[in-house]
What we know:
Elements: E1 4-9, E2 12-17, E3 31-37, H1 40-47, E4 53-57, H2 69-76, E5 80-84, H3 94-100, E6 103-106, H4 108-112, H5 121-126
Parallel strand pairs: 2-3, 3-4, 4-5
Antiparallel strand pairs: 1-2, 5-6
Amino acid sequence: MAERRVVDHRGRTVVLIDSVAQVTGEDAGRIxxxxxxxxVSAADYAKAVRAALYVFNDxxxxxxxxxxxxxxxxxxxxxxACAVGHTTARIGDAxxxxxxxxxxxxxxxxxxxxxxxxVALGTAIAxxxxx
Length: 131
């Protein structure tokens, strides 16, 4: 069963959802860490709720960068989004992404907010210019 919880992370409110399909309207304006891949189908769910930031798993990037293709879609929709490396956090486990994830990809909006490749997700959230 996919887990959903709201946590305090270094003074920031963070929504942890193991699947982006669990996003709800109450998540608008919040930092949302998912365990989902960052592909097109995930972006379709994310576009429905304007979070301050979405975090996905890069799922190994994949052919034609399918594992992170949704990041550009969200950028075009005005939503910051990034992905953590699949070797740093388990796919489908948002808590692991927050605890151990290292940013591997970010759209322009997320990059401007401090989510850059190589930075630990927890650190980036603590110093983020979003949420």
